């Protein structure tokens, strides 16, 4: 999904504010997990935000997202307190797991596990 400049700027602000909200009361939202807000995508009307989160350890991902969805209205209220004077509508929030890091790690493991024989010298000369 491509975003215009306004959506991108607004998404970056939401990302910054949510990071600060989560950082202030980490255990309340995530327990003992480490969570990073990796990206925010905004709808064209700025009324809906897709928030992508990276969770460590990976085993706790399901619990973290269950807890976040339970506290979504509370999070939205805190966000509204921060940006309410700057915007008309506080966006609806949807949380998604960003598994880019896990996929990259799996790819590294696969590549490291490959048994690639060295090239023959005659092939290199040609």
Describe the overall structure.
A hairpin with a 5-residue loop joins strand 1 and strand 2. This protein has a three-stranded mixed sheet. The model has no long low-confidence stretch (mean pLDDT 85). The N and C termini lie far apart (45 Å). It contains six helices and three strands. It has one domain (5-99): K homology (KH) domain (GMP Synthetase, Chain A, domain 3, 2-Layer Sandwich). It has 126 residues and is α+β, with helices and mostly antiparallel strands.
Number of helices: 6
Mean pLDDT over all positions: 85
**Roughly what fraction of the amino acids lie in strands?**
15-25%
- Which class best fits the helix and strand makeup? alpha+beta
Q: What is the H-and-E element order? A: HHEEHHEHH
Précis, in short:
Belongs to the RbfA family. This protein has helices at 5-24, 26-30, 61-70, 72-83, 100-112, 121-125, and strands spanning 34-42, 48-56, 92-97.
Name its key features.
single chain; 126 residues; alpha+beta; GMP Synthetase, Chain A, domain 3; 3-stranded mixed sheet; 6 helices; 19% strand
Write the layout of secondary structure elements.
Blueprint: H1 5-24, H2 26-30, E1 34-42, E2 48-56, H3 61-70, H4 72-83, E3 92-97, H5 100-112, H6 121-125
Parallel strand pairs: 2-3
Antiparallel strand pairs: 1-2
Helix pairs in contact: 1-4
């Amino acid at each position: 999904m491509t975003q215009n400049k306004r959506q991108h700027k607004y998404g970056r602000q939401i990302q910054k504010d949510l990071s600060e909200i989560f950082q202030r009361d980490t255990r309340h939202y995530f327990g003992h997990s480490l969570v990073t807000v990796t990206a925010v995508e905004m709808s064209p009307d700025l009324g809906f935000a897709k928030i992508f989160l990276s969770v460590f350890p990976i085993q706790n991902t399901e619990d973290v997202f269950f807890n976040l969805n339970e506290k979504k209205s509370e999070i939205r209220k805190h966000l509204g307190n921060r940006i309410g004077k700057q915007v008309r509508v506080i966006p609806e929030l949807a949380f998604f797991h960003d598994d880019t890091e896990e996929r990259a790690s799996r790819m590294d493991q696969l590549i490291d596990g490959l048994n690639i024989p060295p090239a023959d010298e005659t092939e290199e000369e040609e």
